[in-house]
Amino acid sequence: MNEARPAATPRLRVRTYELTDPGDLVGLIPAGRPAEDVMSWVRREEGLVGWGRAAAVSTSGDARFADAEEWWDALVAAADVVDEVERPGTGLVGFGSFSFRNSSDEGAALVVPEMIVGRRDGHAWLTTINRTTDQLPEVKPAEAPTGVERTDGALSPAQWRGAVGDAIEYIRAGRIDKVVLARDEIHTADADIDPRWLLARLSTAYRDTWAFAVDGLVGGTPELLVRSDKGLVTSRVLAGTIRRTGSDDHDLALAASLARSSKDLVEHEFAVRSVEAALRPHCSSMNVPDAPFVLHLPNVMHLATDVSGALTDGASSLTLAASLHPSAAVCGTPTREAALVIDELEHMDRGRYAGPVGWIDARGDGEWGIALRSGQIDIENPCRIRLFAGCGIVEGSDPVSEVAESVAKLAPMREALR
C-alpha cells in the first residue's frame, strides 16, 4: 500500500516563495491524484495542503517512529533548500501518519509532496520539491460520492455495546482504571471516493478541527497531540464528551452538566496526567490548568485542557508525538493493561486511527494531531472507506450512552460522505 523504504536517501531541491493569498487551501488540490497522494492539515483556513510524492518512507513495528525520524533527518541533511519565507511549515515539509499499535499491518508513512501551499498569520507561500515549474495546476471541483452504502465493521453496534459492558466489569474488578474502545463501519460508494470532497466538507462544517489527509487517511480531528513552534510546546487534551441537541439553551445546560460530571472529570484527569507525564522530560515551565474548559463543536462538546511547556532538550515534534502516544485519551490507564483490553474486546486492527497524524519541517517544528473523526480510504479499492469512532470507558459509563456517543463521533465523516 505504502512505498517501500528506499535504499538511498534522495537529494531534494526545495524552493519556497511568497504567494499572493490563494484563497481556499483545500480547493487548490488538483483532481486526478490517488487518495494516498493528497495531503492536508488545515484549520480555520490556515495550514498546509500538498499533492504528489517527491519522497516517502514506510516504517512499522516498535521502531516505526525512530526509523521515520532517522530517514527524515537524512533527507533534511541532503536537501538543497531555498526558503524565502522562513516560517513554520515552509521549506522542506513531510506529512506523516502512524499506526495506533506497533503490531498493526498499517505501519506508518512519512511523505514529502511535490507541491505544498501554506498560509499562516496573513502570509501565504508555495513550496516546490524537485519541480521545474512553480505554476499551480488548474483545479477541477470535487464530486460528491454517490450510492454510498454502510455496513457494520468488526462489531455491530449491539456487539460493541456488549464489549463496553465487559470493559466496565474489568474496571470494577480493578484490572484497569479506564479504557478507550473503538468501533468501525464500512462505507462503499459507486465510484472512487475523492478525498478533496471529504476535506472540503470537514473544513467547512467543522472549522475548529484540523482537516487532515495523509496516505489515504482523511478526517477532521479536534485533538492536537502536540505542536512545537520555536521552543514552545502545546498539547490539547480532550476527554469527556456529551452530544449536542441543536438547542442553544439546552446545550448550554448540557455544557454545565459536563463540566460538573464526576464520570467525565475522572476520565479527563487520566488523559491530562498522561500527557503531562510524557512531556515533562522534554519541557520546563509546564503549565497544566487546574480545571478543563468546555470545547463546543457542531456535533459534540468535550472537556478540554491545553497543556504547554518550554522545550529544553531540542526534541523534534515527531519525537514529542512518539513520547505522547498513546495517551490515556485514546488508550486508557494503565496503558499496558488498557491496550490488552483493547486487543481483547475490539476484535479489529485500528490501523492508523487514533495514531499521530500531522507534519514536520526541517527545523523539527510541526503539528501532530490524533487521527480521530476519520476514515481510511482503501488504496486498492478507493470506492471503499473504513470509518472509526471511540469512547472513553470508566466505571461510571453506561453502554447505551456510549453507543450514542460513538454515533455522534461518526457523524462528521458520515455527513462528509453525503
TrEMBL record:
The keyword Nuclease does not apply. It comes from the Bacteria. It catalyses: chorismate = isochorismate. InterPro entries: ADC_synthase (IPR005801), Chorismate_C (IPR015890), IsoChor_synthase (IPR004561). Keywords: Isomerase. It holds the Pfam family Chorismate_bind. Its EC number is 5.4.4.2. The keyword Isomerase applies. Residues 158-409 form the Chorismate-utilising enzyme C-terminal domain. It is an enzyme of class 5 (isomerase). Belongs to the isochorismate synthase family. This is isochorismate synthase. It comes from Dermacoccus barathri.
